[in-house]
Amino acid sequence: MTGARITRRRLLAGAAAAAVPVALAPLRPWRAMVAVIDPPPLAARLARLLAARDSGRRLGRQAAAAVADPDVAAALLASLPGGARRAAAAGDDELRGLISERMRADFAEEDTVTVCGWVLSRTEARMCALAALSDDERR
After folding, report:
1. How far, in Å, CA of 124 to CA of 75, rounded?
2. Ramachandran category for residue 96: left, alpha or beta (phi over 0 → left; psi -120 to 50 → alpha)
3. Using an 8 Å Cβ cutoff, are 106 and 71 in contact?
4. CA-CA-CA-CA torsion for 120, 122, 125, 131, nearest 10 degrees?
5. 2 phi, psi to nearest 5 deg
6. Do 49 and 73 contact (CB within 8 A), yes or no?
7. Which of 24, 61, 134, 136 is 20 to 30 A from 7 (CA-CA)?
8. Chain-centroid distance, C-alpha 47
9. Cα separation of 21 and 11, whole Å?
């Protein structure tokens, strides 16, 4: 039986090569690649942007009825400056800015809804409703 002789150098190189994926597993570097290759849907991105997600989800169940939009995500995206196309191309920070800009405009235009005693801009109510709907879809 003849074969390649295993030297100490080959053994150490093989062990090091096998250790790299094991060492990187806790860091999950592939998540960044997957996010670029297959980005999450825009509605899911919007729902994640809500700062107080738990409170927003609870409030969102009542907010969905208050805003009465058949497609909350589409209504929210259409209301943002630049519409859905700009929102889809925006990074998370720019998307937060677009949402904040729309919320300020809602209050200036008195486009508000009252949900559980809270006066919310229509955009805030849609964000909460979207968070509640995305939470319900995951179950």
Report:
1. 12
2. alpha
3. no
4. -140
5. -115, 150
6. no
7. 24
8. 6
9. 17
The encoded tokens of residue 105 equal 């405009």
- How many angstroms separate the CA atoms of 90 and 95, rounded? 6
Tens of pLDDT along 73-109?
A: 888 888 999 988 888 888 889 999 999 999 999 999 9
Q: Which ranges of 25-118 does DSSP label H, i.e. alpha helix? A: 30-37, 42-48, 53-67, 72-79, 83-89, 92-108
Q: Which two tokens stand for residue 111?
A: 């486009």
Say whether both 22 and 74 belong to one domain: no
Whether the pTM exceeds 0.85: the reply is: no
Residue in this structure with the two tokens 């849609």, named with its chain if needed: 126
Phi, psi values for residue 119, rounded to 5° = -95, 115
Same structural domain, 69 and 19: no
Taking a C-beta distance cutoff of 8 angstroms, is the pair 72, 131 a contact?
Answer: no
- Check whether residue 51 and residue 27 sit in a common domain: no
pLDDT at position 127 over 80: yes
Considering the domain architecture, whether residues 50 and 79 belong to the same structural domain is answered as yes
Q: What is the mean pLDDT of residues 53-68?
A: 82
